[in-house]
Write a structure and sequence with these properties.
5 helices, 2 strands, Four Helix Bundle (Hemerythrin (Met), subunit A), single chain, mainly alpha, globular
Length: about 170
């Protein structure tokens, strides 16, 4: 299957903020690319036994990570997961059997948009802006680098899942 690659280009010589934000966008776009053209059942399929990992689970997890780091750690919110039942501490992002695919992608895209604009990335005076999580202080610079690493690792998983589903491979 041929999929159009519309990922955000990463500048080869830019300042730190432009480089980090473009690299993060590239990684976000890569996850979307790995999911493109698949049916809801394929997105939910746990393609590599015995793992419970699925592409939709990765999308829901990415939404959670975006929410946690940008809204809660840097933005100071106490936003809860839309997939974790009230009163529960169990993470339900990877539990996709009854998941709504459109809802998951909408929430993920919304969290990415919030991270760009409202959660300080575009508005921050400096990458030295900080937030806290569990009594630890994190800079915006750290969060951007961590998010790139988070997506890159999971995009490797997504590549294997996609290849197992329909043979599609690629960067």
């Amino acid at each position: 299957m041929t999929i159009q690659d519309h990922r955000t280009p990463v500048p080869h010589a830019a300042d730190e903020r432009a480089t980090l934000t473009a690299m993060l966008e590239f990684q976000r776009d890569t996850l979307a690319l790995k999911c493109a053209g698949l049916t809801p059942d394929q997105l939910k399929e746990r393609a590599i036994a015995p793992s419970g990992l699925s592409l939709l689970g990765l999308v829901r997890h990415a939404a959670e990570v975006e929410r946690g780091w940008f809204r809660n750690t840097l933005g100071g919110e106490r936003s809860r997961s839309p997939w974790t039942p009230p009163g529960s501490t169990d993470r339900a992002d990877f539990d996709v059997d009854g998941a709504d695919v459109d809802e998951a992608f909408t929430i993920w895209r919304d969290e990415c948009a919030r991270a760009r604009a409202r959660a300080l990335v575009d508005a921050a005076d400096s990458l030295d802006l900080t937030g806290t999580h569990e009594n630890e202080t994190y800079s915006l610079r750290y969060v951007l680098a961590h998010m790139i690493e988070e997506y890159a690792r999971h995009n490797g998983h997504a590549d294997l899942l996609r290849e197992r589903l329909d043979g599609t491979t690629g960067e």
